[in-house]
């Protein structure tokens, strides 16, 4: 992967960035995504934020190598602290992290979102944490995508300002993804259901404690919810 040819998941993330957006790519790694978006003419200005020194230095080198230093500012900062008000960022991308980490970045950097119109997230796991954050903070899901790459399944959640209500199943699996029920979506939740069943079997053999009983109830609830569409 490089700034000319992105991975499948990052290409999908890039597709949700609107023409002419001012982007902040948080956890930018080599800054491949902002470089690609500028090279393809979709955007003209971006911030590449990194909290770890090694990836930060890689991003700086890559941006310089691409000759895009006037278009992309690379900053070392924790989450949205890499964004300054004068940047006038209106779009944020956060890809390749766990859902709870993405949600915590958004929560801790909430004061940096005043000018932001769209947030594009690509959680590797526990996407529900992002949906929960959105509902609690005045953001609504406008688009979702699920895809498979190198035998790993990824979700993309696109947020804009607004309010919406989702039931327990929609929060867990995604309201748009639930409507589509794509083959990759069904594969993911069949895989999850099998794993829950395995864990439940092992818990049945364990001693009866309050924690174990609670865990069993949680797994049974999840299996019941997912079973609603897997059995169809």
From TrEMBL:
InterPro entries: SAM-dependent_MTases_sf, TrmK
UniProt key word Methyltransferase: yes
Keywords of the record: Methyltransferase, Transferase
Pfam families cross-referenced by the UniProt entry: TrmK
GO molecular function: tRNA (adenine(22)-N1)-methyltransferase activity
Any one GO BP annotation for this protein: methylation
Record carries keyword Transferase: yes
UniProt protein name: SAM-dependent methyltransferase
């Amino acid at each position: 992967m490089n700034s000319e040819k992105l991975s499948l998941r990052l290409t999908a993330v890039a597709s949700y960035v609107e023409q002419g957006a001012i982007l902040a790519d948080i956890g930018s790694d080599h800054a491949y995504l902002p470089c690609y978006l500028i090279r393809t003419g979709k955007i003209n200005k971006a911030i590449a934020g990194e909290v770890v020194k090694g990836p930060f230095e890689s991003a700086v080198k890559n941006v310089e190598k691409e000759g895009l230093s006037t278009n992309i500012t690379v900053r070392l900062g924790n989450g949205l602290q890499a964004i300054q008000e004068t940047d006038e960022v209106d779009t944020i991308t956060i890809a390749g992290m766990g859902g709870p980490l993405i949600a915590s970045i958004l929560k801790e950097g909430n004061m940096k979102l005043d000018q932001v119109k769209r947030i594009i997230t690509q959680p590797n796991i526990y996407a529900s944490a992002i949906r929960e954050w959105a509902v609690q903070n005045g953001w609504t899901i406008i688009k979702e995508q699920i895809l498979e790459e190198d035998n790993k399944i990824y979700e993309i959640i696109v947020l804009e300002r607004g309010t919406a209500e989702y039931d327990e199943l929609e929060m867990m699996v995604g309201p748009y993804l639930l409507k589509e029920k794509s083959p990759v979506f069904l594969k993911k939740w069949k895989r999850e259901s099998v794993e829950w069943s395995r864990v439940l079997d092992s818990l049945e053999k364990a001693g009866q404690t309050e924690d174990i009983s609670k865990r069993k109830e949680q797994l049974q609830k999840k299996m019941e919810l997912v079973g609603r569409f897997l059995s169809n």
